[in-house]
Amino acid sequence: MPRTSCAQPRSPLRSRAPRPFEAVFDEAAFGADLDAIAQTHRGDPSALRMAVVHRAKQALADGRRQTEAWLREDGQGRACAARLCDMEDALIRMLYERVGAAIYGSDHHSTSEHMAVVATGGYGRGLLAPGSDIDLLFLLPYKQTAWGESIAESILYTLWDIGQKVGHATRSIDECIRQAKADITIRTAVLEARFVCGDRTLFDDLIARFDREVVSGTASEYVTAKLAERDERHRRVGASRYLVEPNVKDGKGGLRDLHTLFWIAKYVYRVREPAGLLQQGVFSKAEYSTFRRAEDFLWSVRCHLHFLTGRAEERLSFDVQREMAQRLGYTEHPGQRDVERFMKHYFLTAKDVGDLTRIVCSQLEENEAKSLPVLNRFVQRLIPRRRKSLGDAGDFIVDHGRITITDDEVFERDPVNLIRLFWLADHQDLAFHPDPMRLITRQLKLVNDELRSNDEANRLFRDILVSKNDPETVLRRMDEVGLLGRFVPEFGRIVALMQFSMYHHYTVDEHLIRCIGVLSTIERGTDPSLGLANELMAGIQNRDLLYIALFLHDIAKGRPDDHSILGARVARRFCPRLGLTPAETDTVAWLVEHHLTMSTIAQSRDLSDRKTIETFAGVVQSLERLKMLTVLTTADIRAVGPGVWNSWKAQLLRTLYYETEPVLTGGFSEVNRSERVAAAQRQFRNAMAEWSAADIDAYLARHYPPYWLKVDLPHKLAHARFVHASEAASRLPATRFDLAGRAGVTEVTVLAVDHPRLLSVIAGACAAGGANIVDAQIYTTTDGLALDTIAISREFPDDADETRRIGRVCDAIEKALSGDVPVSEAMVQRGAPKTRQRAFDVPPEVTLNNAWSNRFTVIEVTGLDRPGLLHDLTATLSRLNLNIASAHIATFGEKVVDVFYVTDLTGALITSAQRQAAIKRALVSVLAPPAEERARRARTEAG
User: Fold this and answer.
1) What region holds the HD domain (predicted)?
2) Dihedral sign, CA of 348, 354, 356, 359?
């Protein structure tokens, strides 16, 4: 199967010489040991049991160590899982034979005294991960007997004593058939059943009756149920296969998807092994090879993950990804770390799994069209096909609302049809038939420089990219079949490229495609949270440039140099292909180069400082570019992942836009600053109907103008009611919290008398209570109070648990501000990074700049976030005799970017080079990881 990207990392696993399959469990020796144990402890069942358990534990531990050693040597994940399964089979056979002999001492039993021990679930597939459960079926000819109960209990109790997780059922053949008819899960368990030991005839009878009485005529029912089950699983663990912390087992493109694919094929085609799909013509040789390669890679990852963590961990979380990459043999390349190359390979494999699923579904649908209704999920059941020709050349047809091809030579006759298929689908609002999608993956060789330079192909692609219909879906389908990365080679380099960062939720290609979807939403104006962008989009003169710039803004990631500058160069080469003029190309390149500028300034600069606005205006230079950059920045942040875009960021961008607009228009503004303040106050007045006019007037006077511009209305109302209630109760300092304001965080608002160390005390109290600050909005009232809203990482998904935790944090803040409890002693225990954050390495960086403000020295601090960092930074600034005029706290996953506007004690800028150097040294020492953390990282890298 052709790959999407020429830059695909070659798996180190493939370069290792495969070793012949060897069992890790000497069944004969183990059996002899059990016989010797039985002789030694004859007449003492308790001692016998303990001795058997001890010997079995030792055998399993030795076998696991050998299995892990071989896995690290040859990298064969499927062989590792098979060895673990063989070891379990041998253990259960030994127990069954010894238990049977111990109970009866003879093989001559009555008709009812027969049993088959059957493996089900993952164990039934003949593959076990190190932490997998053992699922057993004790199969009986009739009802349970004392003999059968004794055998089953003895085996189960021994396995449990060994420490294994065992799921089990004891059923007759009739019960299995009856329950399989009624329950899809049990039906799948029987479908996967594998004989381990006991009476083989019983097992063969079960399979024969299952095929005859359950499977026959029910393929459509089973397939529909399993696909619905898969969709629900995807919804539960994450609908995208490009989540940067994927679930290897249950995630989209993971092992469970391969299992579902095989269950369906096994049920419909009655094949026992995946090779049967090749014989049935479902897979080509290349596709079957892809299936085995994907299966082996995913099993390697899963087995390594279980061995590494010592438990049945299925999620590739950030804190294990780097060590997993090293275990699997990945190395660093220019612009890409070892962990990023490993994860790129993982996501390309997940994509392969999606391709294979689509192929099987296509074949099943073809079977339905010719004979039985197999997959009514994809076609309208038993309705005659309605076809109509599409396109001038008649190369495409519409089949039940889906676009497909007339024959297999369509793309070879005219390679432009590769792009035209997607253009027609978008233009006619059609879904995609799986047949052309499968054919495209086999004919990507047709995408060459001649096609890339074809004017018609580029015109069609531009129409897709800037479509007013559903460009996100069409581009994603192009990406899934590998066409997008072939037609735009620069895009091919970032396909499945993962950024090793807690801030980014998706791979780079998925992020870019989601950006296009967000821009479509902005243009339709259907998401009120995107406020200002919705308003500006309608007035942008050339909307096409925004779509093209968003498609390109991260396209140069994964290279050693600044991706914004490199991306601008890509834009200057690529835009003429799409027919853009030199001026339009220049605009797109500028947007790509500066796509981070507005976000950075809005979140980490004082927007009430005139120099900030003038500097930004100097970069933007025109009102049209300001509008386009505002919309692009909104879409970029919104597409990073769930919960990243919020009302705070929306309000900051709005403020920066309206502060910059008058500078660009020579003083003229559609809505000038004083009018915007007045409008915000009127909005507040209208919403506070329960207050008297005098109370509202008094409250309006307590806030400086920037407050009314930077804070959104819901927070203004909450602040006002909080201040009023606190003062009425004579509570100062006071706190309140909100669990529902933003996804993934809890907002805490603090009202207290303002003083220079206030932020430091609040941050210290939060850290002492185990709370990590990820964002902060800090305001001072005209009567000397501080009204600070801080965002704290949410600890518990359950509201009741989080309420109890945050209540303790608020109590700690109030006590610290009251002077009742000093925070310095508690802070000693709270300095280490959290587990997830310890996986990252963010070089400490401190910048002092006197050009960013006329009145203040601006200190920008960048480093690895950790609980208590903000307290340590602000406390250090205080010890350096610096006054903090304003602070701007922003966290991007594991990376913190804190900006402080400071002066010395006399109110002057910090101009002395020696003083600046001393400040830098002090702050860098705060950012640097403690000695034990540096030692741990060194050990990890060495290992």
Assistant:
1) 508-629
2) negative
Average pLDDT for 83-94: 92
How far is the C-alpha of 461 from the C-alpha of 456, rounded, in Å?
9
Confidence at residue 500, expressed as pLDDT on a 0 to 100 scale: 67
What pLDDT is attached to residue 893?
Answer: 75
The secondary structure of 663-688 as a DSSP string is HHTTT--SS-HHHHHHHHHHHHHHH-
Q: What is the dihedral of CA 359, 518, 513, 836, to 10 degrees?
A: -100
**pLDDT value, residue 45:** 75
Average pLDDT in the 752-758 region?
86
Q: Show the 3-state SS of 787-807.
A: EEEEEEECCCCCHHHHHHHHH
Mean pLDDT of the chain: 85
Q: How far apart are CA 564 and CA 571, in angstroms?
A: 10
Range 217-223 average pLDDT:
86
d(CA 74, CA 85): 18
Identify whether 576 is preceded by a cis peptide bond (ω within 30 of 0).
no
Closest Cα to residue 260, out of 369, 125, 155?
A: 125
First to last CA, the chain: 35
CATH C-level class of 384-454+469-487: mainly alpha
Q: What is the mean pLDDT of residues 924-939?
A: 64
pLDDT of residue 332: 85
Place of tokens 């063969």: 204
555's CB contacts (< 8 A; 6+ apart) are 490, 491, 493, 494, 508, 512, 567, 570
Q: Which residue has the tokens 């529909």?
A: 224
Yes or no: domain 12-216 corresponds to CATH 3.30.460.10: yes
Q: What one-letter code names the amino acid at 9?
A: P
What CA–CA distance (Å, rounded) separates 523 from 707? 30
Domain pair 12-216 / 384-454+469-487, same fold: no
What's the number of CA atoms in the CB half-sphere (13 Å) around residue 691?
18
For residue 15, CA distances in Å to 328, 338, 341 come to: 11, 16, 16
Pairing of strands 431-432, 396-399: unpaired
- Determine the 3-state secondary structure of 52 from DSSP: helix
Work out the burial of residue 14: count CB atoms within 10 Å of its CB; fewer than 13 is exposed, 13-18 middle, 19 or more buried.
exposed
Q: Can you tell me whether residue 625 is helix, strand or coil?
A: helix
Considering all CA atoms of the chain, what is the largest pairwise distance in Å, rounded to the nearest integer?
Answer: 103
Report the CATH number of the 236-370 domain.
1.20.120.330
Cα gap 227→365, rounded to integer Å: 14
| CA gap 785, 51 in Å, rounded | 73
Q: What is the mean predicted confidence (pLDDT) over 792-810?
A: 88
Q: How far apart are CA 719 and CA 711, in angstroms?
A: 10
| φ and ψ at residue 893, rounded to 5 degrees | 70, -120
Phi, psi of 850 (to 5 degrees): -100, 0
Average pLDDT over residues 852-879: 89
pLDDT tens digit sequence for 606-616: 888 889 999 99
Report the pLDDT value the prediction gives residue 228, as an integer from 0 to 100: 84
Task: Extract the tokens encoding 426.
Answer: 């978008």
CA 491 to chain centre: 20
Does 376 score more than 50 pLDDT?
no
3-state helix, strand, coil in the chain (%, to 5): 55, 10, 30
Q: Is 696 exposed, middle or buried (0-12, 13-18, 19+ CB in 10 A)?
A: middle
- Give yes or no for a contact between 542 and 588, defined as CB atoms under 8 angstroms apart: no
Domain ranges of the chain: 12-216, 236-370, 384-454+469-487, 502-670, 706-933
Contacts of 123 (CB under 8 A, 6+ apart): 85, 88, 132, 133, 134, 135, 136, 194
- Three-state SS for 251? coil
Residue 853 above 80 pLDDT? yes
